[in-house]
Amino acid sequence: MTVPETRATEWAARVSGEIGKAVLGNRAIVERLLVAMLVGGHVLLEGMPGLAKTLLVKSLARAMGLDFERIQFTPDLLPSDVVGTMIYSPATGSFAPHHGPIFANLVLADEVNRAPAKVQSALLEAMQERQVTVGGVTHALPVPFLVMATQNPVEQEGTYPLPEAQTDRFLFKLLLDYPDHADELEMLHRWGSAVHSPEILGVTSGAELLSLRALVDDVHIAAELEAYILALVRETRRRATIAVDGVRPLLFGASPRASLALYQASRGLGLLRGADHVTPALLQEVAPDILRHRIGLSYEAEAAGLTADAIIADCIATVAIPG
């Protein structure tokens, strides 16, 4: 009989291998996406244009065998373009709901910061409640349901900063970087032909994903590590109230959702790697991806050249690791 740890590890290798047909490199990013799938968390992907953010999410959906929809966010997008609307039927003389693209297992919100506040509000309800309201009636979204959003870190024309309440709903904020030399050279060899298009096959299913989710809770996390999670999160809040070397680094620290995210994601990562318990190293590894969008840098910190990741690294170095 296959042990739970082996099942999850084999599943991750299978899905990652299929994604690798279309997207080279970004192995750590792919692993984080699989962790998000396991714990049911939404993901914000940030990177420069051309780094295959959209292709990555589309390939994940195909490999997972999930119902997939892509929404291109623009300043003229309406909430009804996302959640749907009521359609009048002359034959029956009544209105019936027409579901929007949000009714999918995996929704790609492309360039999510280009949509105005009303659209963000509609997306926020879907992300938090896993339901939407159309014509005054609440409709449950499919299970599983995840939002993976992309944004460009330097583009400012026609963009709207995401509200803190929404960014807090993302389990991870993942930063995509340029591929290394070997991976970029391999891209030329694989896809230099104008007629070549990689075919991604479905190698798993929503049912298998849900069965693996039930195993995340089997990964043990000790009471000392629970205290370590709270200490890390509370350290970010402490830094929002004091000055370090004459600079007040943060406007606000991480919310309790950060504590829950660290708890869940570290267990999910442990399951993927075949571990039956969480270690401090696992927590420290996922902490930047969980905390970087949940803390607000002060103007003084930005002027001093500090970054969210630098502050998080300092928090990790400051908080004592349980023995």
Summarize the structure.
This protein is of the alpha/beta class and 323 residues long. It has helices spanning 4-19, 27-39, 53-64, 79-83, 117-129, 164-167, 181-191, 206-216, 223-238, 256-272, 280-291, 299-303, 308-318, and strands at 42-46, 68-72, 84-89, 94-99, 106-110, 131-134, 137-140, 146-151, 170-175, 250-252, 296-297.
Tell me the major beta sheet. 5 strands, parallel
Top CATH class of the largest domain: Alpha Beta
Helix and strand composition category? alpha/beta
Q: Tell me the strand percentage band.
A: 15-25%
User: What is the averaged pLDDT score?
Assistant: 90
The CATH architecture of the largest domain can be named as: 3-Layer(aba) Sandwich
> Helical stretch count?
13
Tertiary shape: globular
Distance between the termini: 35 Å
Report on this model:
The protein is an alpha/beta fold. It folds into 2 domains: 4-193 and 202-212, P-loop containing nucleotide triphosphate hydrolases (Rossmann fold, 3-Layer(aba) Sandwich); 219-318, Helicase, Ruva Protein, domain 3. It has helices at residues 4-19, 27-39, 53-64, 79-83, 117-129, 164-167, 181-191, 206-216, 223-238, 256-272, 280-291, 299-303, 308-318, and strands at 42-46, 68-72, 84-89, 94-99, 106-110, 131-134, 137-140, 146-151, 170-175, 250-252, 296-297. The strands form 4 sheets. A 5-stranded parallel beta sheet has the order 2-5-8-1-9. The protein has a two-stranded antiparallel ribbon with strand order 3-4. The chain has a two-stranded antiparallel ribbon with strand order 6-7. A hairpin with a 2-residue loop joins strand 6 and strand 7 (137-140). Helix 1 packs across helix 3 and helix 9 crosses helix 10 (256-272). The chain is globular.
